[in-house]
Amino acid sequence: MKPTFRWLNKKRHEVIIEQNFLSTLQAFRPDLELYKIKEIILDSDKYFSSYPDVLEAGACAVDHYYNHGEKEGRVFYAPKISERHVASQLTEGKKVYISDMQPDNGIFLYRVLFRMVNEPESLNVPYHSKITDLVAAIFSAREVVFIRPVHSEKNIYLYTLCYYLNVKITFDIDDLMLPEYVDEKGGIRSGLANYNTLRTDLVLNSAALIRADELTCTTQKIADTYKSSIKKYTIIKNKLPKSYFNNARRSDKNANIKAELKLKILYLSGTATHLKDYSIISGVLTKLAQKHPGKFEINFMGQLKDQSLLFRSLNIASTHIRYEHFQKMLDIIGEHHVVLVPLENSEFNNAKSNIKFIEAASQGVPVIASTATEFVNTIEDDNDGWLCSNEQEWYDRLAYLIANPERTFETGMKAYHNALANFSL
Predict the structure, then answer these.
(1) Residue 66: which of 136, 124, 3 has the closest Cα?
(2) Tens of pLDDT, residues 309-334
(3) Are 181 and 348 in contact (CB under 8 A)?
(4) What is the mean pLDDT of the chain?
(5) 123-124 vs 141-147, strand pairing mode
(6) How far apart are CA 358 and CA 418, in angstroms?
(7) Which residues lie across from 235 on neighbouring strands?
């Protein structure tokens, strides 16, 4: 009977070791002899050199490290692997996701956890897991999906182990991570990142593309940009499980109180790297506050520097919410009438997915968005949302909704049905 994995918690697995670690690995891959398994999971010579007490005790370096050494905090020495095992891929192997994203990070949720909803046999093994768990997962795998992989010695070892075991290597990219686009990244545009450091990181990260068998990405723009570097790619759109969809606040009963409405606006910034994007509408919002004091409310959620004080000084109700977990974020969106998604006109933003449309629409809330590619492909202007290509259009759309806040109910319900039909799991 093959060994299996158990849930440590909702978002992480570990291998169940029935006897000892080597026997567990051989049970996953009976085509490999034990001596060969030892060769590809530890550099024994370096381990003995660093820990002469293990050598003096007459212990096997591999047995010692995987059964005792890792728990004791001893260093893992990756072996050099240059060949490929002749065996074919495991037809019943698992699909394994490896990511260093935090469990409540949007990238992790959409690219790992939500996709696993329809993949009950897949595994998530965080990048910072024990080497024991990572190695065991790869031995059990037919495919390993590296989410936004970064250059590191650890990742290089994991790639080479996959290569040796004839495990398919997939890189999952949800942004333009190539060095050619460093000028357009939010951290650079917003003055939060060092150009040379970021470019060096992107050069090293993108160099690893040569190791991938396939690229999965969120948009056609990303695929078109990367297809010169990798031949096989698949576009996997971001989708939200139906269990998160909630249109209760957009019922006809709520719509009937339109005479009492004051437009509630939400700017959902995400990270602080969206400062330059926010600058597109900052002047528009200030002008609206001056011309329509007390006629609308605007709240800010995310890591962007607190903008609420300015609006309160102009007699506009405004709060700043630093960060909330995913479900709470959706609840807060549902308390508003419209969400703003300003984006600079750039190749980088044109490669972004429509994730903010999906999240807002799942709560029956429409967005006003810049004319970035994926929003143009998703929204029918003035039907299930609004699109703006310049400051005047932003001003006109918002001024209209301040005067007619009830318009957001019908538009929000159309957005809800769009998202439910096309972007749900």
Answers:
(1) 136
(2) 899 999 999 999 887 889 999 999 99
(3) yes
(4) 87
(5) unpaired
(6) 9
(7) 217
In this structure, are residues 357 and 375 in contact, taking their beta carbons and an 8 Å threshold?
Answer: yes
> DSSP 3-state assignment of 321?
strand
Phi-psi region of 417 (alpha: psi -120 to 50; beta: other; left: phi over 0): alpha
Tokens (6 digits) for 164:
């040796």
Pull the structure tokens for residue 120: 């009950």
Tokens at residue 96, please?
């394994």
Compute the distance between CA of residue 84 and CA of residue 175 in angstroms, rounded to an integer: 31
Give one DSSP letter per residue of 50-81, joined into a string: H-HHHHHTT--HHHHIIIIITTTTPPP-PPP-
d(CA 80, CA 98): 21
Instruction: Report the 10 Å Cβ neighbour count for 23.
Output: 13
Domains of the chain with bracketed CATH: 81-235 (3.40.50), 242-422 (3.40.50.2000)
Query: Which amino acid is present at 218?
Result: T
Between the alpha carbon of residue 65 and those of residues 58, 143, 153, 157, 419, the distances in Å are 13, 26, 18, 17, 49
Q: Which structure tokens are listed for 251?
A: 């019922």
Burial 362-401 (b: 16+ CB within 10 A, else e): bbbbbbbbbbbbbbbebbebeebbbbbeeeebbbebbbeb
Quote the pTM value. Answer: 0.86
Look at residue 9 in the predicted model and tell me its pLDDT.
63
Coil, strand or helix at 159: helix
CB atoms within 10 A of CB 322: 10
The tens digit of pLDDT for each residue in 112-132 reads 999 988 888 888 999 999 999
- Contact yes or no for 146/169 (Cβ under 8 A): yes
Q: What is the pLDDT of residue 88?
A: 73
Q: Which residues contact 415 (CB under 8 A, 6 or more apart)?
A: 357, 360, 361, 364, 365, 366, 367, 379, 384, 385
User: What beta strand segments (E) does 51-156 contain?
Assistant: 94-98, 123-124, 141-147
Q: Phi-psi bin for 382: left (phi > 0), alpha (psi -120 to 50), beta?
A: left
> For residue 343, with 0-12 CB atoms within 10 Å meaning exposed, 13-18 middle and 19 or more buried, which class applies?
buried
The amino acid occupying position 183 is D
User: Is 3:18 a contact under the CB 8 Å cutoff?
Assistant: yes
